[in-house]
Specification:
The protein has seven helices and four strands, in the order H-E-E-H-H-H-E-H-E-H-H. It is mostly helical.
């Protein structure tokens, strides 16, 4: 992986138009989806609560554009003490991803209902509120945890040059969890360099396809 990163040179007018249409799409699409599926989200929250009678909403601090922290929201898919058990899993050498990222294919902290929600990315639906409030976008690098960012090199920190998103280039790769963290960063920087409405549209449609029909990244 390269040690240096040169930000892309952009036409200010074209990039400004792109950002305007991207933000407009974010707001309109997120609002429309929430109106259409709010009943479904409420049912999922109730099902999760009935599973273990704990708060079905999980709020986690993530790092957004420019290194600014914000709270991300999900339908909880893990046991209530998941954060404590994560440290135990790391200490036991069970992290299957390249640090600073953490991934386990069969994470023991994920509940039965949580596995179903994750399979179809149902747990991510609450992040539509993050899209509306501007802390996230529909398309962009996945927002990392603060303790992960602390371990980033200067090169890797350029993932934070744009607003994080629900979908990204990494997520639409087959067997994405087998990719190295360096490759993940390269894909994010490739997206940042090539940003366009066409690329965003491609990622959105392929992302929906993979959620529904291709679970190779699980």
């Amino acid at each position: 992986m390269a040690d240096e990163y040169t930000p892309p040179v952009r036409n200010k007018f074209k990039y400004g138009c792109y950002r305007f249409f991207k933000r407009t799409f974010d707001i309109v699409s997120a609002l429309l989806l929430l109106i259409l599926i709010s009943w479904f989200i409420l049912i999922c929250l109730l099902v999760k609560w009935l599973e273990d009678f704990h708060n079905p909403v999980y709020a986690s601090v993530r790092v957004g554009k420019g290194g600014k922290p914000f709270k991300i929201y999900k339908i909880r898919t893990m046991v209530p003490d998941a954060e404590k058990r994560k440290e135990e899993l790391i200490a036991a050498g069970l992290n299957e991803a390249d640090p600073p990222a953490f991934k386990m294919k069969n994470d023991p902290r994920v509940t039965r209902v949580g596995r179903f929600f994750r399979k179809f990315s149902i747990d991510e639906l609450l992040q539509l509120f993050n899209v509306i409030n501007g802390t996230m976008s529909v398309v962009g690098p996945r927002p990392p945890l603060p303790d992960e960012v602390e371990k980033y090199t200067e090169y890797q920190k350029h993932r934070l040059d744009v607003r994080g998103g629900l979908l990204c280039l990494w997520q639409i790769q087959k067997d994405r969890n087998s990719l190295s963290f360096d490759r993940w960063v390269e894909l994010d920087l490739e997206y940042i360099e090539k940003q366009s409405l066409w690329l965003d549209t491609k990622i959105i449609f392929k992302g929906f396809y993979m959620v529904l029909f291709d679970h190779s990244g699980e």
